[in-house]
Specification:
The complex is a heterodimer of chains A (286) and B (314).
Chain A: E1 2-15, E2 18-24, H1 28-31, E3 37-41, E4 52-55, E5 58-62, E6 72-80, H2 84-90, E7 97-104, E8 115-121, H3 128-135, E9 140-147, H4 156-162, E10 165-170, E11 177-178, H5 181-191, E12 196-200, H6 203-215, E13 220-223, E14 239-241, E15 252-254, E16 261-263
Parallel strand pairs in A: 8-9, 8-12, 9-10, 10-11, 12-13
Antiparallel strand pairs in A: 1-2, 1-7, 2-6, 3-4, 3-7, 5-6, 13-16, 14-15
Helix pairs in contact in A: 5-6
Chain B: H1 3-9, E1 16-18, E2 21-23, E3 27-29, E4 52-57, E5 70-73, E6 76-79, H2 87-99, E7 106-110, H3 115-126, E8 131-137, H4 148-151, H5 154-167, E9 172-175, H6 183-193, E10 197-200, E11 204-206, E12 209-210, E13 215-216, E14 223-226, H7 231-244, E15 249-252, H8 258-266, E16 271-274, H9 277-280, H10 284-298
Parallel strand pairs in B: 3-16, 4-7, 7-8, 8-9, 9-10, 10-15, 15-16
Antiparallel strand pairs in B: 1-2, 5-6, 6-14, 11-14, 12-13
The chains are: A alpha/beta (286), B alpha/beta (314).
Cofactor (chain B): FMN
Subcellular location (chain B): Cytoplasm
Function (chain B): Catalyzes the conversion of dihydroorotate to orotate.
Chain lengths: 286, 314
């Protein structure tokens, strides 16, 4: 975990409202684990005041030019423009500076399973790519990717290049199958009851995934997002209700430090709020 | 070499004293924004700080408020964490051993749910050699008991300070709330009751609305406003309190850089606390220390104490 000033290498629109930013990040290739996140300070000033959390999509090396310098390490984030922070971020270009804090949080636990099923909802796809990159080494990996319309379906071909079998569904049928990603999951779980499932997306989707997995006794890990101030467990602003939580015996877990990835049975699903909008940056829509 | 040049090369003195507590510089975190120190240790050597103020402690662990607990506002943030903390037993067992490796004095912030509990926690903290001083929180706006109730009534404040003073053998800093009509009344009340120093201000009670959902943005309804948005209010109140009491005053509220900290020192604060800025930049505090040193050099001052209370009124 480190905090440093760095440079944007590229910032491209993937589909309307969705961007992919590559940032110079020395040390990240070895340090970043699937499911971890970074906090980005989008402005050198005080507006917006707080950093924004973004899931790490991938890390990699940018080959050195002919200048004899070593390869440059980068981190990539995918984000949806929803609020003031992401609006500023989309306007940044190659060569612009940002402050980066990370890698932060606990990542996914790689569980041995013959069938590994990843479920992504919209920008919730972000933390699943590095996970897929690891899981394909030891088994079959399937990505079930859902969104409201075709614009919400991101980077699926990159998963395919890893050797991941992909299944796309959209609410309006504009890409892939018409319907919910959880309908696809239900069919896959019927066929592969020994699977391990990993999911990230809007809370209603995660809740439905949890119900399916719980019914089939399938191990599930979910990556949550939350509005955060510090990202390091100091402010206690991003807590979620843990299993066994009650008014009389409250039990909170810190999303930034104890998460953002949780085993489904660590959480009190009935009490998790649906305010999470799946934007991937912890910003409220504004 | 001229005399002026020699002065320029000499490292300015940043050390200050707060009620017998020696701080190598006047910069420390505001309670609740720095965890128990461990959270920020990866980013800089905590010995660069003047003091380490830990998350507010209660006798028993406290779970805190429902979510959402924080919301961003213009140049600030609202929070209603609700004093979530590990409780004094876990603090002694799990947190103090880590802090022991630093030479920087540890200031334990604490609160109680009742007068008796304030006394009990004070007694426990008094016994700990690793705790150099305590900061009494009578100003949290986010819990019904154990906070602002004591901090808004001068008689109740005096009562709790008197009780804590009786149980305590180390410097006692009392942290005041700005959510009162006249903060100097509170400051005088706690000074008379035995406070060795006063820390002001805690957060300002605020509210924010999500206009799309037409809901309050904090589950608690109201929250404590912090960050640069509150700094002018904090500077004003610190100035007023400095005039009103004889004990040293620690200034806090919206400090993000050395210049912000200097505003407080110039109006008379003996030290400063940095809160929300730690979230914005985990290295904010060491940068402020460096900035203060540079300011002294630029102003040809060899001692930060010459800057404290140096406001020119004409």
């Amino acid at each position: 975990m480190q905090n440093f000033n760095t440079t944007i290498l590229s910032n491209q629109e993937l589909s309307p409202g969705y961007y992919r930013m590559r940032i110079l990040a020395p040390g990240f290739v070895a340090a970043a684990k699937p499911g971890q996140f970074v906090m980005v300070r989008v402005s050198g000033g005080l507006e917006p005041l707080l950093r924004r959390p973004f899931g790490i999509f991938r890390t990699g090396f940018l080959p050195a030019d002919c200048d004899g310098l070593p390869d440059k390490e980068y981190v990539e984030i995918l984000y949806k423009v929803v609020g003031s922070g992401t609006s500023i971020l989309k306007g940044l270009h190659q060569g612009d500076g940002v402050e980066l804090l990370g890698p932060l949080g606990n990542g996914f636990e790689l569980r041995p399973a013959a069938e590994q099923i990843l479920v992504g909802g919209g920008i919730g796809l972000v933390p699943l790519y590095m996970l897929a990159r690891e899981l394909v080494k030891n088994g079959n990996v399937r990505l079930l990717m859902g969104g409201r319309c075709r614009d919400d379906i991101l980077a699926v071909t990159e998963f395919e290049r890893l050797g991941v079998a992909t299944y796309v569904s959209t609410d309006d049928g504009s890409l892939g199958e018409e319907g919910l990603v959880t309908d696809v999951l239900q069919r896959k779980l019927a066929r592969y009851p020994e699977a391990a499932v990993y999911a990230c997306g809007p809370m209603p989707m995660l809740r439905a995934v949890h119900e399916l997995c719980a019914a089939g006794k399938v191990p599930l890990q979910v990556s949550l997002e939350a509005f955060m101030a510090c990202g390091v467990g100091a402010c206690l602003g991003c807590v979620v209700k843990g299993a066994g939580h009650s008014e009389t015996d409250p039990h909170y877990l810190c999303t930034c430090k104890e998460g953002p990835v949780f085993m489904a049975d660590q959480l009190e699903w009935d009490l998790l709020e649906d305010r999470q909008d799946g934007c991937g940056c912890g910003e409220d829509e504004a | 070499m001229s005399e002026g040049k020699m002065n320029m090369d000499k490292k300015p003195n940043l050390a200050v004293d707060i009620a017998g507590l020696h701080l190598k510089n006047p910069v420390m975190p505001a309670s609740g924004t720095f965890g128990y120190g461990q959270e920020y240790a990866p980013f800089f050597d905590l010995d660069q700080l003047g003091g380490i103020v830990t998350k507010g402690l209660s006798l028993n662990p406290k779970a805190g408020n429902p979510t959402p607990r924080i919301a961003e506002t213009t140049s600030g943030m609202l929070n209603a964490i609700g004093l979530q903390n590990v409780g004094i037993e876990a603090f002694i067992r799990d947190k103090l051993p880590f802090l022991r490796q630093y030479r920087t004095p540890v200031i334990a912030n604490f609160f109680g749910n009742s007068l008796e509990e304030y006394g009990e926690v004070a007694r426990r903290l008094s016994d700990l050699s690793e705790v150099a001083a305590v900061e009494l929180n009578i100003s949290c706006p986010n819990v019904k008991k154990g906070g602002i109730v004591f901090g808004t009534d001068p008689q109740a404040a005096a009562e709790v300070v008197t009780l804590v003073r009786r149980h305590l053998s180390k410097p006692l800093i009392v942290k005041l709330t700005p959510n009162v009509t006249d903060i100097t009344v509170m400051a005088r009340a706690v000074e008379e009751a035995g406070a060795d120093a006063i820390c002001c201000i805690n957060t300002l009670t605020g509210m924010a609305v999500d206009v799309h959902r037409r809901q309050l943005r904090i589950a608690n309804g109201t929250g404590g406003l912090s960050g640069p948005a509150i700094r002018p209010v904090a500077v004003r109140m610190v100035y007023q309190v400095v005039q009103a009491v004889n004990v040293p005053v620690i200034g806090v509220g919206g400090i993000t850089c050395a210049e912000d900290a200097l505003e407080f020192l110039i109006v008379g604060a003996r030290a400063v606390q940095v809160g929300t800025a730690n979230f914005v930049d985990p290295q904010a505090m060491p940068k402020i220390v460096t900035g203060l040193e540079q300011y002294c050099r630029d102003q040809h001052e060899d001692d930060i104490n010459n800057i404290i209370g140096s406001l020119k009124l004409s």
